[in-house]
Design a protein that fits this description.
This protein is mostly helical. A 3-stranded antiparallel sheet has the order 1-3-2. Helix 2 crosses helix 6 and helix 3 packs across helix 6. The N and C termini lie far apart (80 Å).
Length: 174
C-alpha cells in the first residue's frame, strides 16, 4: 500500500469527482420549466400529429379521407344533422365539407335530403354502409392506438384515457 500523501490526495479527488459525476448523471436533468412540465398544447400537439399520421394507413386502406371519417363519426353520434350543424360540430367551414359530403353521398355512405320545413336546408344521416365503414376504420385506428397506449403502465393508461375523455367532453364543440 502506497502512503504517499500526494497519491492519496489524488486518488481521493479522483474518486470524489467520479462520485459527483455519477450522481449528476443519475439524477434528472435540470429543466427550464419550474414544475418540470411544458404547456399542455406543446405536449399534446406532437402526440396528436403522431396519432393522425398513424391513422393515415387505416384511412387509405378503407378508401376514405380523414374528413370523410370525421363526418361519418359525427353522424354516428347525432344521426340527423343539418349541414350547418355538422360543420359547426366538426369545426369545419360549411363550404369546405360540401365536396366531402358529395363524395360520401355518391358512395352511399350518407343520405342527404331537403328538410321538409325548409327546402334550402339539407338533412344528413348515416347510411348503413357508412356505419359499417366507420366501424371498420375505427377498429383499425383503435388497433394502432393500442400500440401507443401499450407503452404506458396499465394504471397510467386508464388514468390517461379517463382524464382525456373528461377534458374532451368539457371542451368539444356542441
Amino acid at each position: 500500500m502506497d502512503n504517499n500523501p500526494r497519491r492519496i490526495k489524488y486518488a481521493y479527488t479522483y474518486n470524489m469527482c467520479k462520485l459527483i459525476i455519477s450522481v449528476l448523471l443519475s439524477t434528472r436533468t435540470m429543466s427550464a420549466f419550474p414544475d418540470d412540465r411544458r404547456d399542455l398544447a406543446t405536449m399534446l400537439v406532437p402526440l396528436a400529429r403522431a396519432l393522425v399520421a398513424r391513422e393515415e394507413p387505416a384511412l387509405q386502406a378503407h378508401d376514405i379521407s380523414m374528413w370523410g371519417y370525421i363526418v361519418l363519426t359525427a353522424l354516428a353520434e347525432h344521426p340527423v344533422r343539418t349541414q350547418a350543424a355538422l360543420a359547426q360540430a366538426i369545426n369545419a367551414d360549411k363550404s369546405r365539407i360540401i365536396g366531402v359530403l358529395d363524395d360520401l353521398q355518391q358512395r352511399g355512405l350518407i343520405t342527404r335530403q331537403p328538410d321538409a320545413a325548409d327546402r334550402r336546408v339539407h338533412l344528413l344521416s348515416l347510411a348503413p354502409p357508412g356505419d359499417r365503414l366507420r366501424r371498420s376504420v375505427q377498429a383499425a385506428i383503435r388497433a394502432s392506438e393500442e400500440e401507443v397506449l401499450g407503452t404506458l403502465p396499465a394504471s397510467d393508461r386508464e388514468a390517461f384515457l379517463r382524464s382525456l375523455k373528461s377534458l374532451y367532453e368539457r371542451f368539444r364543440a356542441p
